[in-house]
Automatic annotation (TrEMBL):
<dbReference type="Pfam" id="PF13561">
    <property type="entry name" value="adh_short_C2"/>
</dbReference>
<comment type="similarity">
    <text>Belongs to the short-chain dehydrogenases/reductases (SDR) family.</text>
</comment>
<dbReference type="GO" id="GO:0030497">
    <property type="term" value="P:fatty acid elongation"/>
</dbReference>
<dbReference type="InterPro" id="IPR002347">
    <property type="entry name" value="SDR_fam"/>
</dbReference>
<dbReference type="InterPro" id="IPR036291">
    <property type="entry name" value="NAD(P)-bd_dom_sf"/>
</dbReference>
<dbReference type="InterPro" id="IPR020904">
    <property type="entry name" value="Sc_DH/Rdtase_CS"/>
</dbReference>
<protein>
    <submittedName>
        <fullName>NAD(P)-dependent dehydrogenase, short-chain alcohol dehydrogenase family</fullName>
    </submittedName>
</protein>
<dbReference type="GO" id="GO:0016616">
    <property type="term" value="F:oxidoreductase activity, acting on the CH-OH group of donors, NAD or NADP as acceptor"/>
</dbReference>
Amino acid sequence: MKYALVTGGTRGIGAGVARSLARGGYRVVATGVSEEEVGDFAASEGITAQQLDVTSQQQVDALIASFERLDAVVNCAGIIQRGGSEFEPDKFARTLEVNLTGTLRICQAAKAKLADGGGSIVNTASMLSYFGSASAPGYAASKGGVAQLTRSLAAAWAMEGIRVNAVAPGWIATELTRPLIESDERSGMILARTPMGRWGEPDEIGDVVLFLLSEQARFVTGAILPVDGGYSSV
C-alpha cells in the first residue's frame, strides 16, 4: 500500500487529484483549509479528509508526523484574490505565502519521509507560470515561483531519490471557474484559444499527476507539464 498527501484536496483540481490517486491504489489524505471544507467533502473509498492551513508550520509538522510512511505529496492548496486586490502589497504577500511558501513548507517537512521510501512530489503550477496576469499579479508570480521551486528541488533532492515535478493546468471546470463557464462571452474566448475546444476536468489533471508519481515516470524530474488542451501552445 502506498500513502499520499494531497493539500487542497477537498475541492476543485485537488479533489480530482485525490480521486485519481485513490483509483490508482493510494491511501490518500486530502486536506482543506477549514473544518467547513473538510465537512463538505464527499468522502470516498481510499480518501480521508483533514484540516490543514499550509501557512502554519505547526499544523504542517503535525500532519506530516502523523504519517508512518509517505510515498507521494501533491501540492494543490492555493488561493487567488480577484478584482485587482493583489496589487496591494499585503494581498500580494498573502497569495505568495499560501501558493509558493506553503508549497515549500510542505515539501521541506515531508522530505525525510519521502527520502526513506523513494517518494515523489508533484506541485501545481499554472499556465500563468508562463503568462502574466493583468488582474492577479500575486497569483501569476506565485505560480511562476512554483515552477522554479519545482526545478530547484528536483536538482537539490535527486540524489536522495526524490523526484519533483509539476503540472500546469489550463482552464479546468471547477466551482472557482463556474462564473466563466456560465458566461457565453468569457467561455467562448477561452474555448476559441484552446485547440481541443473544451474545458478540462479535475480528474484529467489527477490522471497526469498519477503518471508523474508512477514508476513509468521514474526518469522524469524537474518537469513542468502543461495539461491545458493546447492553450499554452497557441
